[in-house]
């Protein structure tokens, strides 16, 4: 087993608005990364198995970095992700009031791109492109 850290050419990042409650941060992060894993098979590693042969689901093959920023930082990052055509997932404030996937999608669909009240975004792509998208954000404490 190698102890040297692996450096990836790609990055998985979540950007959260800095005014969210702790439970909201966790919930938003979980929802956002599920979007990436469902559409980008290259981000998923192999299934796990313990020493007794009990199987477990595969997870991301690389770390997920979590950042935070202001509402303006999130809006700018979203614009940059769109301009670079990077795979992304969004979570808007409206999704805290819905209770199912159908209503979630309808809530996002009802608002134009520039008017989305973003509270979180996940993005995946080449490391340098994701770094540019996240300009102005800081690592989540």
Record the SSE blueprint.
Elements: E1 10-17, H1 22-39, E2 48-49, E3 55-56, E4 64-69, H2 71-83, E5 88-92, H3 101-109, E6 118-126, H4 127-133, E7 138-139
Parallel strand pairs: 1-4
Antiparallel strand pairs: 1-6, 2-3, 4-7, 5-6
Q: Largest sheet at a glance?
A: 5 strands, mixed
The overall pLDDT average reads: 94
> N-to-C terminal Cα separation, in Å?
29 Å
What is the alpha-carbon Rg in Å? Answer: 16 Å
Number of helices, counting only DSSP H or I runs of 4 residues or more:
4
**Binned strand content:** 15-25%
SSE arrangement, N to C:
EHEEEHEHEHE
Can you tell me about this structure?
With 141 residues, this protein is an alpha+beta fold. The chain is built from four helices and seven strands; from the N terminus they run βαβββαβαβαβ. It has helices at residues 22-39, 71-83, 101-109, 127-133; strands at residues 10-17, 48-49, 55-56, 64-69, 88-92, 118-126, 138-139. The strands form two sheets. It has a five-stranded mixed β-sheet with strand order 5-6-1-4-7, sandwiched between helices. A two-stranded antiparallel ribbon has the order 2-3. Helix 2 crosses helix 4 (127-133). The longest helix is centred in the first third of the chain and has 18 residues, at 22-39. The radius of gyration is 16 Å and the shape is globular.
Task: Give the gist of this structure.
The chain is an alpha+beta fold and 141 residues long. Helix content is 33%, strand content 24%. Helix 2 (71-83) packs across helix 4 (127-133).
